[in-house]
Amino acid sequence: MRLLAAVLGLLLLCGQIAQAQVRSYDQMIAAGELKVAVYQDFAPYSFKQDATPRGVDVELAQALAKALGVRLTLIWMPAGEKLDDDLRDYIWRGSPLHHHQLADLMLRAPYDHDYAQRRNDQGELENGQVVMFGPYQNEQWQVAYDRRRLDSVASVAVFERHPIGVEVDSVPSFYLTSVFNGMLAGKTHHYPGVPQAFAAMKAGKVDAVMAMRGEVDWQVHEAHDPQLALAENAYPNMGKQRWEIGMAVHESNRQLAYAVEEALEGLIRDGSLQAIYSHYGLRYEVPEMYQ
Asked: How does residue 126 score in pLDDT terms, banded at 50, 70 and 90?
């Protein structure tokens, strides 16, 4: 019992230490550094190529740091089981199990009122320590297909006859294996990630792939194959099919959020952000806030 108490005490102390590392805007400016958390191995948004950081979120972070007049330090995040875990570990508390600094800013957080207002069983906000703001991307689900084996995708019902690849445990996986009473499940093939699903399509193992639009755009761009096409079908009974991606800071750091939001608007208005997306072959839609 004493050992257990000591371990629990140490974990609590680690959490308090991490909490104390949340920097104010003035401290960040004085240090001349902006620490930005991005997801690791998540092309086309944030990844390394020959040890060089690349991706839409990496270039956006670089542009934001430049606008604020500070240098950029990237903090690479492995994706947690839930987004709540990532917000906790990298924005407001830290993790006693992982040795990393807290970030000043986290990219690729949802800009979603319902998510931000979720409450636990005690009626408390589940992410009350976090401010989510600054929508910078519209995202949606997308199907790409190989015209050598599939003429068109008028409806997802075509995948009752044609095999389609998806990432395991993803929304497309759950959707395609359950819609229409599961009649597409037999032709839904699962892969560790979107690149592997596209590799399977290239090898003729599946005729199409379903994933987030940005990931699909990137894979099509990198393939340089004119026979790969983008479907324009709808997704019956899927629920939310489009959403906005934004940023997150600690709730005590709203001054940083205001400064970043101002810089972001400038990048959207002058076309810089669209140019970043185009660089990776991605389509870009201006979020509703800036239209």
From this structure: confident
